Amino acid sequence: MAIIGIGSLVDAQILVNNDSISRYDTDSLRRAFDSGPYFTFYKDNYFAFGTAVGQKPTRANSNIRFQISIQQKLTRSTLPWGTYLYLFYTQKAIWNILEKSAPFYDLNFNPGIGWAKPFFSQRTGRYMGKMMLILEHESNGRDGDASRSWNRISLAGNVLLDRNIMVHAKVWVPIVDGQQNRDLLHYAGIYQCGVQVMSNDRRFSASVVLTKRCDWNPLNFNTQLELKFRVFPKDNQYLFLQYYNGYGQTLLDYNRFHSQLRVGIVLSPTFFSEY
Known about the structure:
Blueprint (H helix, E strand, L loop, with lengths): L8 H8 L9 H10 L3 E3 L3 E8 L9 E12 L10 E12 L8 E17 L6 E13 L9 E14 L2 E11 L9 H4 L2 E8 L5 E9 L8 E10 L6 E10 L11 E10 L8
Antiparallel strand pairs: 1-3, 2-3, 2-13, 3-4, 4-5, 5-6, 6-7, 7-8, 8-9, 9-10, 10-11, 11-12, 12-13
């Protein structure tokens, strides 16, 4: 899910200094969005090693998963209706580092563009959340039988319930153009929702993301749980624990079930993460 203003002055003023939030009116917060950095993190950037849960660890089921994710603000100031335009890029990889020659098993490329609308409290000027319309493509860059790709138009949003809790959701209209993954939605899902809880000092956070697979069983979700602990108070480097249970972890194996536990290091946006 996309969130605007990652790493910006808005995060520092509105969310960290919550006790003095009344000092910031809507106009000053909009100026913070305008003057924030153009090039920042989008989703979490992590590097984590793990193995299958419930199985004996082997070279085949133990690997590294990493993600690189960035965004570029394309507009110098607000567009009509107080909106902003962003360009995104995320790349995920599964690296079989324990196997001979340490090959990369799968690489997923995910560029996109998003039109974002932040919302502020009329009474206090507090940043409350946002809505976003996103056009994105995802593929693994292969041809033949190993080729996987799809496109989607998504409507995403989040709401800050208070300074410690954020809820988010994303629903998409899919355009599955990959000939080898026509049934992708039965595994990768049709919408997602989640919650992130943070400590007051932002050193610890816990999150859960549920992605509903496209079938009639209301309990069929892909589940991702994450715990993060910031090592040093003023850095954005965190120790990272991630548990994934379900399908669609990568495009190549979108229809294979995975239950994986990983530990590693993550570089996160200033306040809250993308999903």
